[in-house]
UniProtKB/TrEMBL annotation, chain A:
Protein name: Spore gernimation protein GerC
Recorded family membership: Belongs to the GerABKC lipoprotein family.
Residue span(s) of domain Spore germination protein N-terminal: 27-224
UniProt superkingdom: Bacteria
TrEMBL record, chain B:
Similarity remark: Belongs to the amino acid-polyamine-organocation (APC) superfamily. Spore germination protein (SGP) (TC 2.A.3.9) family.
UniProt topology in membrane: Multi-pass membrane protein
Pfam families: Spore_permease
InterPro entries (UniProt xref): Spore_GerAB
Keyword vocabulary terms for this entry: Germination, Membrane, Transmembrane, Transmembrane helix, Transport
UniProt keyword Transport present: yes
Subcellular location: Membrane
Domain of life, source organism: Bacteria
Keyword Transit peptide included in the entry's annotation: no
Annotated organism of origin: Paenibacillus helianthi
Transmembrane spans: 12-33, 39-61, 82-105, 117-134, 146-167, 187-206, 218-241, 270-294, 306-322, 334-356
Signal peptide extent: none
Protein name per the record: Uncharacterized protein
Length: 406, 365
């Protein structure tokens, strides 16, 4: 009898223990029950809007800062986000794969909580890929955003943070024909700009690192909407003292990448030469060597910028571009031209005290003694950056001319 | 006798390595960046050397008593009451270390992985696994470490190598720094992570070649030291020193921003965390084993099977004591300070007595 009991026990006990492990995960949430936020846009809202805000994280009578923000979130609708190529079904055009929700709040977290109060499923930022902020936000209050997004373990450092011309919420409504999910279109646009050398890989993590460094100022992609549907990379929005201060022209992104020596080259330049007419050159590779000195107690930086390129277009010229000498002529003209563009960009950032090139980091790395004596915080360097000397040399080598001989 | 001497030098080294690589992996670069800015990896290197020195002090002493563990021969050297006293303190240290490590593990798991799972459950399960495996003898103990080590080192190295692609060398310059107070503080903090190399005292009586204890430790410490050094290098090189100081778990952020082939494979943090859990298990396992072994020694029991169960509730309570994350960190640092003093001081005392007795004997004969 006793033996039998023991036998039964020896079978039942392990079974009981094993059944504990069948309970599954404590934290499990089915994917259909998640509100996956794919894209987010953040705008300022006028202070009067405070009256319209729901009382989710604070009551009306509590003291709050006047500024308000309005966020627009693109939430993936489960089952409607198409996976793989579309089958050409009739539904595709009518039902949007995303749900666009707009809420108000005092801070980003406040607004996210208001958002949660309005939607059934718990929101998840794990698939957040693109955040668009308006210029007003970038010029005013980045620290709230930086704090919340850095602190939240769901946000990746490879998210794109874009500064928009005009209201950011427009970007959540675009319906581009190339991708069915709007934010995925913005995302693939930025990613492709990086691989084709049109834009530096400036993710939110890169922006944070630059923002923390004493010897560098941060910058973000500056985008604009054209014809309601097309998104244009409109330049760099750069920061000084933690606030956005100015923007560059799109061509100046190329100039910036040239000074940084970022590969591959992606920008083409159209310019007028003296004798060869209009010429367009395409840059394929950039290589830059930076040197730094301390001269008369002031940092001096010198950049050797090298380009490899092709002749892309040539018309209206009196002479054909058909010999080494002619190519050299074009190269010299380009160098003169590009020097103007780069020089202008450097002077503009110096005037704005925004060292987007990270020249201070070069000084910090190579002249630690000087750095320790003169620079005690980030604004020391940004102040000094306005008055340093920057020299640069440009060399272009045109290697090929395409399929036309002259 | 020959049967019990089964642990090879390499396996002893593996035990030490996998013990050292543990919970500190995630926040290590932050301490280094605070101590040395861009020279963080240099601080880490100094820390490794410091900890090797304290290890050498201990291991070369134990090597001379290759058939007994430290707790046995210390009784003969300095007398039973004093030896018991020191053993008691070392036991307390390893109890607290086990508890705090389990707590740090729970904190990370709760804030990054399981938001809803109660931290008590995470900690308790981890401790329970350690308790169950601590019932095994020391030979099996060494095999478990030897089995997991390649997994841990391999995946950590893969993560580091992927992120090394994006390292900006400017972030790592200047490479050297003046040996200021904060530099030494950082080097000591780095060496705290290596304190569980104390486990060698358990291994020596079971090693095939006890004379090679120092060599085993050297391999163990330098392999794990290289891992820590590379992690500091990758983090500071990737983010810059200032950003690394802002992040509570810089290594995790490195894994989170690593990507293969421009977004083809992203979010390696999931994989990294899984491996990290294993590495935490191996280090808690060692400290837990030490704690139960020391208790067995204090009570004079035959083996550590029963004490391993007795230790569990106490360690669990210690793990739940800190109020918040910051308190956990300050307590860990304080514990590091105390054990640094003890692990340097105690072997020195034993060495002194050892030399005195030896010269005394020579004088007599």
């Amino acid at each position: 009898m006793n033996k039998l009991l023991r036998k039964i026990g020896s079978v039942l006990l392990p079974a009981a223990v094993i059944s504990l492990f069948l309970a599954g995960c404590w934290d499990q949430v089915e994917i259909e029950d998640r509100a996956l936020v794919l894209g987010l846009s953040i705008d300022t809202a006028p202070p009067e809007k405070a009256a319209e805000e729901e009382q989710v994280t604070h009551l009306k009578n509590t003291e709050m800062p006047k500024e308000m923000i309005s966020i627009t979130a693109q939430i993936a609708v489960p089952g409607r986000v198409p996976l793989g190529p579309g089958s050409g079904g009739s539904q595709d055009g009518k039902i949007s794969p995303v749900w666009v929700v707009t809420v108000l709040g005092h801070s980003l977290d406040d607004a996210m909580n208001n958002l949660q109060q309005q939607i059934a499923d718990p929101r998840y930022l794990v698939h957040l890929r693109v955040i668009v902020i308006s210029q007003d936000i970038a010029r005013g209050r980045m620290d709230d955003l930086d704090d919340y997004l850095r602190r939240n373990p769901e946000v990746r450092r490879r998210t794109w943070l874009l500064v928009s011309e005009g209201r950011a919420s427009q970007f959540m409504d675009v319906k581009p024909p190339l991708q069915r999910v709007p934010t995925l279109y913005v995302l693939s646009m930025m990613e492709k700009a990086v691989t084709s050398g049109k834009f530096p890989p400036d993710y939110i993590g890169t922006y944070w690192s630059a923002d923390s460094k004493w010897g560098q100022s941060a910058y973000l992609p500056y985008v604009a909407l054209r014809n309601k549907e097309n998104i244009l990379i409109n330049g760099l929005a750069y920061f000084s003292q933690g606030k956005m201060i100015n923007t560059t022209q799109p061509l100046e992104i190329g100039a910036f990448m040239a000074v940084e020596g970022m590969d591959p080259g992606g920008y083409s330049t159209l310019f007028k030469t003296k004798e060869l007419g209009m010429v367009m050159t395409k840059i394929n590779e950039r290589y830059t060597k930076a040197r730094s000195f301390i001269r008369d107690g002031k940092p001096v930086l010198s950049f050797d910028i090298n380009f490899e390129g092709d002749l892309d277009e040539h018309y209206n010229g009196k002479k054909p571009a058909d010999s080494t000498a002619r190519l050299h002529e074009i190269e010299r003209e380009f160098e003169r031209n590009a020097k103007g563009v780069i020089g202008r960009l450097i002077r503009q950032t110096q005037k704005d005290h925004a060292d987007i090139f990270g020249m201070g980091e070069i000084i910090r790395a190579h002249h630690p003694e000087y750095w320790r004596q003169h620079i005690h915080n980030k604004s020391d360097w940004e102040e000094l950056y306005g008055s340093i000397t920057v020299d640069f040399n440009l060399t272009l080598h045109l290697r090929r001319v395409g399929l036309k001989k002259t | 006798m020959n049967d019990s001497r089964q642990i090879t030098t390499l396996r002893a080294a593996a035990v030490i390595s996998s013990t050292i690589i543990g919970v500190g992996l995630l926040s290590f670069p932050r301490y280094m960046a605070v101590a040395g800015n861009s020279a963080g990896p240099f601080v880490a290197l100094t820390g490794v050397l410091v900890s090797f020195f304290s290890f050498w002090l201990l291991a070369s002493l134990c090597r001379r008593f290759s058939t007994e563990s430290l707790f046995v021969f210390s009784r003969r050297l300095i007398g039973r009451p004093l030896a018991m006293f020191f053993t008691l303190i070392i036991w307390l240290i390893f109890m607290t270390l086990t508890g705090l490590t389990a707590r740090q593990f729970g904190d990370v798991a709760t804030s990054v992985l399981f938001n809803k799972t109660p931290i008590e459950a995470t900690i308790f399960l981890m401790l329970l696994i350690c308790q169950l495996s601590a019932r095994r003898n020391i030979i099996k103990f060494s095999y478990i470490h030897f089995f997991y080590l390649p997994l841990i080192i391999g995946s950590v190295l893969v993560t580091i190598l992927i992120s090394l692609r994006n390292v900006d060398l400017l972030n790592l310059q200047p490479v050297l720094t003046a040996p200021t107070a904060s530099f030494w503080k950082g080097a000591l903090e780095a060496s705290y992570l290596f304190q569980s190399s104390f486990v060698i005292t358990l291994l020596i009586p079971f090693m095939k070649l006890p004379k090679q204890a120092v060599r085993a430790g050297a391999i163990g410490i330098f392999v794990s030291g290289a891992v820590y050094w590379l992690i500091a290098l990758a983090c500071i090189g990737l983010f810059g020193a200032e950003e690394t100081k802002l992040l509570i778990y810089p290594t995790l952020e490195t894994a989170r921003s690593a990507a293969i082939g421009e977004g083809f494979l992203e979010r390696l943090d999931a994989l990294f965390i899984v491996i990290w859990v294993i590495s935490v298990y191996t280090s808690i396992y060692t400290t837990y084993y030490l704690a139960s072994y020391l208790l067995q020694n204090l009570l004079g029991l035959r083996d550590q099977r029963m004490t391993s169960s007795a230790v569990l509730p106490f360690v669990f309570v210690i793990a739940l004591l800190p109020e918040n994350v910051f308190e956990t960190y300050t307590w860990s640092l304080m514990l590091g300070n105390v054990s640094m003093l003890l692990l340097l001081g105690y072997p020195m005392l034993l060495w002194a007595v050892y030399w005195l007795r030896r010269s005394g004997k020579r004088g007599l004969s």
